[in-house]
Write the structure tokens for this entry.
Amino acid sequence: MKTFENVLVDSNNGISTITIDRPSKLNALNKATIKELHHAFMEADEDPDIKVIIITGSGEKAFVAGADISEFADYSVSQGSELASQGQALLFDYVAHLSTPVIAAVNGFALGGGLELAMAAHFRIASDNAKMGLPEVSLGVIPGYGGTQRLPQLVGKGRAFEMIMTAGMISAENALDYGLVNYVTTQEELIPLAEKLAGKIMNNSPVAIAAAIVAINAGFEEGENGYDEEITQFGKCFGTADFQEGTQAFLQKRKANFPGK
Ligand code: COA
């Protein structure tokens, strides 16, 4: 396994926990960290023993306080476009389309690119000290890592407009109320809760979960028909060893032991 400068990876019992580790900069995402995260996610996704990925931030203060502002402060128009397109391809779109489920455990500030990374994960949980927002317009720019698309999908257009236009932060409780996170807990209980949810996911067929990710994502993609994709993915499941095992286990009144194929 590769070692990284700004990312820690801990793989245990089918779970890969990827921790962004730049606490002195509140885990801000510079380009180097985005590349490292890409590799860490790729390695976890390609490892057949890993069934769930948890993404979190180092320290008690921040998940990620945004893209690294010091890195892009003097960028031109073309450099700005490239920053967004490369970041989306390497990390944000990449994570959203992984076959392995990704849970974001938001342990503090999730601002700008930090909230965008949490939103690229398949779902989110938060500690009660977490604060979330897309403050980009306060810097004279807009969210560029998928935030203008994923925030309205998750919280609705009106709340997304308010959050983006005011550049404000919402509390973990508000985020729960908005449906932006699924659970709020204490900081100590955050990773244990993520692991408990991962445990429930791991009881199920990884192949069927990967098919569900493709079908759900299709409903949010330009030019794709989610219902058609659902039919395709549903049909494909019937040709898998996991389907044989899942249905046989049910009929034989035993717990399924999915081969993941
Ligand atoms: N990019 C680069 N550096 C960042 C950063 C970011 N997005 N967010 C925080 N940092 C750095 C700070 O510059 C500071 O570094 P320094 O100690 O070398 O000066 C360090 O992280 C600690 O941050 P600080 O601002 O001192 O902490 P705070 O508790 O006073 O405030 C925040 C916390 C999150 C409110 C504040 O850091 C902030 O507003 N960050 C920027 C958020 C943002 O606009 N993100 C969107 C970017 S597109």
